[in-house]
Amino acid sequence: MSFELNRRRFLSGVAAASALTVGSVPARAQTKRSLLFWHFYTQPARANYLRKMADLYQAANPGLTITIESMPTPSVVNRLAAAKAGGAMPDLVIHSSDTAIPLFASGDLLPADDLVKDLGGPSFFAPTLLDRMSSYDGHFLSLPHYCAARVLVYRKDRLAAAGLQPPVTWDDALKAAVATTSAPDHYGWSYQLSRSDNGGCSVLYPLSLTAGGGFLSSKGDVHFDSDPVREATEFMVEVIRKAGGPGVFNYSVNENFNLVNSGKTSMTLDTASLVAVAANDAPQVAEQLDAIEIPRKDKTATILQCAALMVLKGKNKNPEDAGGFAKFLLQPDRHLEFLHTIPLFMFPTTVATSGDVFFSNPVISRFRHVADVSVEALKHATLFCSDDGGINPFSSPVLSSRIVEDMLARIVLNNTPVKDAIGGAQQQMADLTGMLKRRLRR
Amino acid sequence: MTALRSLAGFLDRHLAILFLIPGGLCLALVTAYPFVFNLWASLTDLNLMYPGAMFVGLENYTKTIFDPELWHSAKNSLVWTISSVLGQLLLGLIGALALEQTRKGREPFRLILVVPWAFPAIVLAYSWRFLLDAVYGVTNHLLMLVGLIDAPVPWLTTPDYAMPIMVLINIWFGFPFMLVSILAALTMIPAQLYESARMDGAGYWQELRHITLPLIMPVLRSLVILRTIFVFNNFDFIFLTTGGGPVDATTTLPVYAFQVGWQRYDLGRMASVSVVMMLILGLLLATYVYALRKVRAPQ
Q1: Digit-coded pLDDT (tens) for A157-180
Q2: What is the ipTM, given to two decimal places?
Q3: Which locations, inside or outside the cell, does it occupy (chain A) (predicted)?
Q4: Measured between CA atoms, how close is A439 to chain B, in angstroms?
Q5: To which H or E segment does residue A289 belong?
Q6: Is A420 helix (H, G, I), strand (E, B) or coil?
Q7: Domain boundary, last residue among A325, A343, A376
Q8: Range of the domain at A61
């Protein structure tokens, strides 16, 4: 049997295949709803807890399917941008609260005003917390899921061996860092200044605050090239050179856990999460850890880290379930269970989960001083670059720009004079905020 | 109706065109569309986070061309590409010639050499980072053990060492591909040519110069051009290992483009960087083709 292919047969075949393909797509069930939920809790304890909560919420809301994707913190902003370009935005995301502003300005975020009202108003949350981490342009942009403040975590045993008290001032901290260095076994104060993370900003900014400075105003006016920032930079550089160790520019922020657990650093600036993880992974090291507020030059200051629930115009167009699930997660008993998944890692954001119910956890009780220092620091902590009140719309782009990390590397590795390096960084920040200002005006 | 009939008649006579249409459409979608979109984006202020884009003419190109970081990254790209490809080629060629002489164990050895290709870039990058880590790394530990260094060396975060080390890692990763390809080419050379040469009194080096190299030259030429394109455009390996640092010691053009677009949100300018990259790569390939045009295999 012979078969000759001609134009008519070819086109008929193509038409039939197309009809079959279209016809085989099942009709969309109208009752089915989906929810895409992103979070940056990569540790199994927190990720498993959220899956359990999603299963509970699904069971209470027949027809709803919640898909959860977790990813490391530094990649969330980039992945959000890529998802936006590809029409695959999540419906609900948990990420650093300052991410909310660019999302709001680009029209991708739905304000959380109604959700706050449903939960009982701003008084449902810890005092002033919403003003500090959510309030922008007359709206509450997100709901705080947990917060933490940066403190100085140090090794009690090494300070005691050096005959030193916990460092209160920069001078104390430098002395302690040098005295607790024993190269190549361990180093006094290892920063994490890799180019792939924002470890430089996270240290230089609070240090500058303690010297009475800051990076930029909430209107985008850059005042980075200033005496307080210069002094803080010089202090950091001196610590790196005298007690930082050879790996400073290789480490990203998450590697702080390994540095502490392996005993490679005697002090570091981070949240109480370091003690929380050590309590589980390196109990002997954890017993030697304690915390104190960030060493200051002139005044006490620190940086607030706040994970926030944000409802987006996601690919499933399902803000009802996204908002409902966000409120579900913040119900006191469930929220407290979450805060205790890794005790001491997360601090309460609501009134109902604060106080004795939070401190009653055995691990938190054991490290009560670390918890108390953190809670005290939380009272005056501000978000990155938000020292003049509210949230700064330019903070997230500056944080992810790596301008500060580059500047520190130039000073330490290329011996660029501090003044020149700060001047260059000021110019780069001004260019960046200038571009964003034009965008926000549009 | 008449036009449709004449079109149908034309397609009856040239059926091959119908078969070419799906492939052509796919090519247009996956190649032409991104290319044209990139050209358009490079003339706008397209941003990663904010919607909309305004036409800004050649502003992105002006900023890019007058940015000293671009030229520094271009220099790094050339060093990274040329050193890596040259190293891979030499090592691959030597390895293939050596392996061609052996009969026993050639296959298992060939298999072992291509193992690195089975791993994703992130595994290789993090393995090397860990090996070379200044505090935990086994390299420093061993070197200190044998007394070659007194204190740990931050291999990947010392500006003078970072690029040479990245090139060495890339040679390690890329030479087996060259080796396997060259070995395949060597097996295609007729044995009679060598027998005739030996009867005429030719030695090993004469055989290599007058028979082996000319006959595998077409393969070498293709390998060099393909690897140059791959290595020049490589982003993940450098980004995952050094992030382009320390400072900008390993910032190649793809990493620079990423920093502009994804860390500083300026997609319009990132698009202009990629156009400049394309021109530089085109220039490099044109130089190769010009240099290699006279080296032809004997008929």
Answers
A1: 999 999 999 999 999 999 999 999
A2: 0.77
A3: Periplasm
A4: 7
A5: strand A289-292
A6: helix
A7: A376
A8: 34-148+305-376
